[in-house]
Write the structure tokens for this entry.
Amino acid sequence: MATKVQLRRGNASVWTSANPILGAGEIGLELDTGKFKVGNGTDNWTTLPYNASVWNDVTGKPSTFPPSSHTHPPADITGTAVITTDSRLSDARTPAGTNVVPNSMLAQMATKTYKGRTATGTGNPEDVAVATLKTDLVLVKGDVGLGSVDNTTDANKPVSTAQQTAITAINNNASYRTLLSVAGSHTAAKVAGTYAFGFGDPVAVGGAGTLYPLAIIHIVAADLPTINSITTKLRIRAQLFTNDVAPTGNFTFGLYPVTRPATSGGTGLCIYTIGTVVSGSNGASFTTPAADGLLTAVGSDFALPADGVYVIAVVTTATIAASSHIHMNAQLQMRNS
């Protein structure tokens, strides 16, 4: 009786769906493709390779055997230089590499020219003057990365942000500098009033005449100019020292304009008229200072007053107590801020 051998079989989709593991040497046949695989007892169907290619899988094969004679155009050849029958390819002018045209293959060129074409339509290259290229390109400053360049004069050129920061740091001198320093004493029984300072002498009340010179300052705005929009500001700093008897009343320091009346007030005396306190200058003050005090105060910044002659003065609000004695110092200071 004849023995019938049948292979394990099924369409490709059935094999892929089931994805079985074929035993070692077991053959699985795809009925619809004619392909088969041989199992190794380990890998699933989809992992196993097909055992051999079938004719239908071969692409680009000739239709007849042996293949009939045929040709290929140069365009079918890639990855190399195009081969032509030009005789120049066999002499000294043969290109050194793919698509390279050496200078020796160009015609002799005139000075300051380049190969191009200015005539209308297609045709042979021409020697074109470099000046023509410049004209034809019509370049503007932005085309060569100079869009921010202009013809501003040196005097009007702006400075960089970093430069301006450095300049401002120099000119914006926030530190105070003393323009005028004064001192004076105030003794018992001195009545309330506005007293101008001299240089270490008793303070003098305006309008009564004094033997002592006042500590005058002539303020001129041009001497204290605005720099880089940074204006000059003034302030008054004051110190008050008391003995073992507390004085009476309050003491407020400020900047005052002074003038001279028509008459001097008598032999050996000079009379000064103290005007209205400069706005904002009277911020340094002491309220009912205690005995044995070493007190300090400072006012706020104020704007430059009008050009003129000024003095630092103190306003007292009560008669100084008996046996009390006061020493006072004050400074007119400035800064640019």
